Description:
Blueprint: E1 3-4, E2 15-20, H1 35-40, E3 47-50, E4 59-61, E5 74-77, E6 82-88, E7 92-98, E8 103-109, H2 111-116, H3 118-127, E9 137-140, H4 153-163, H5 165-168, E10 172-173, E11 180-181, H6 183-193, E12 201-203, H7 217-220, E13 227-233
Parallel strand pairs: 3-6, 4-5, 9-12
Antiparallel strand pairs: 1-2, 2-13, 5-8, 6-13, 7-8, 7-9, 10-11
Zinc ion (ZN) binds near residues 145 and 210.
Amino acid sequence: MARLGVGEWAAIPHLVHGFLSRDTRPYHPEGHDWSSELEAHDATGLAVVVARQVHGTRVESVSGPPAARPEADGLLTSARGVAVGVVTADCVPVLLVARRHRVAAAVHSGWRGTLGGIVGEAVAAVRGTGIAAGELEAAIGPAIGGCCYQIGPEVRVAFEERYGRAFVGDAFRDAAPRPYLDLRPIVRRQLEDAGLRPQAIRTVGPCTKCDAAYASVRRDGPRAGRQLSFIGWR
Ligand SMILES: [Zn+2]
């Protein structure tokens, strides 16, 4: 199983992070065991917290394995021994870090979360701890691309109504019968809008439907596996 990440982040003390490729085992939404994947990727012993993802915009802070998994699509932590993770199979995983402040976050941004602006909510949650947005770095991970992601015209209308055509226009490509959407450029723009420096935002990895190393619901249907993206502190 492959692991992608940001090379420069390897120099951040205690930080461990990665965008893993697909777990080929059947996915168990009520409590998938990621320990073997984490062991294979240098994260042994880390408690990884994965929320119940609901395609919303709620961001929760965690300091250890919670008694009940929070219902959220973004998780934030600054605790040693804890990582936060998101599980995807076409949606956009985003990892955030404020290296001088030892705060990290993982965000699940599908089209609904992107429409709702979840990365902006995650940046706001970090700012709520007293950290300026300009201190944050972001990595936008493997997700379905504009090559493959056909959506209903109502999705395009919803984005244009909320953000304006200038903001989202080039993320859509006209096609019959339905347009294509590339979510990652919108997520990047939202992060810039929230105050991140453009050079602090990286896009990592391929289109999940094009590359068989990744789970893709659009390619494999409901039986597609999932991939884990995580970030935390040893
Ligand atoms: Zn593709």
